[in-house]
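pasting for ref. prot 1 ->
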Amino acid sequence: MMPPIFENCPTSDIVQHGTNEGATVFWNPIIVHDNSGNFTLAKSRSPGQMFPFGIHTVQYNATDGSGNTNYCYFNVIVKKIKSNYSNPFLKCFQLYT
C-alpha cells in the first residue's frame, strides 16, 4: 500500500497583511487521495480562519487504514499593515490650538 497523496499543498509560505487583531487567511482546498479509499485526515487550521500576527505552521496529516501516513505543512505569515493615513482634521485642529 502507498501512503495518502496530497493535492494543492502550498509549496511556499502564504503571506497575508491584516489590521487590528490579524487577518482571515484563505488557501486552495487541500485534497487527499488514497488508493485504499479509507483514510483519516487531521488538520491544525482551516482556510477562512482568523490568524493573529506572526508565523503559524499549518499541518495536515492523512493516515490510511494500513497505517501509512503523509503530511502537508506550510507557514502562514500574517503581517500588520503599516498605515500612512493621517487625519487632516487633526492636523487642522493642531494648527489652530
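and prot 2 ->
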Amino acid sequence: MDNVVVVGMGMIDTLGNSVSECFDNLISEQYKEPTSFETKHEHMQHLKAFYAQRTDLNHPDYIRKPLYNSLSYASKMALHAIEEATEHLDLDVKTTA
C-alpha cells in the first residue's frame, strides 16, 4: 500500500466556499441549518442532502476557459477545493503536476 500525505484543505459546503468561511459560519450565532432534500440516489437515501451554494468559484489559470465552461458544476467545485488546498502550501500546481 502506498503512503498518503494530506498537504492542505479545500472545501465547499452550504456554509461557504472555503475552510475558514465554513468554520466561521458554523460557529456564528446566525447559523441556521439549511433546508435538506431527498436524494434519488439509492445508496444515499438514508442521509440528509443539502444544495451547495452556487457562487463564484476560482477558475484555475492553467485550464482554458472553453474547457472550464464545459465542465459540470461538481467538477468546478472539485477544482475550487483543490485550488484552495494548494494555496495553503503556496504550491504551484503547474510545475508539480
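The first helix runs from residue 19 to 27.
The mean pLDDT is 77.
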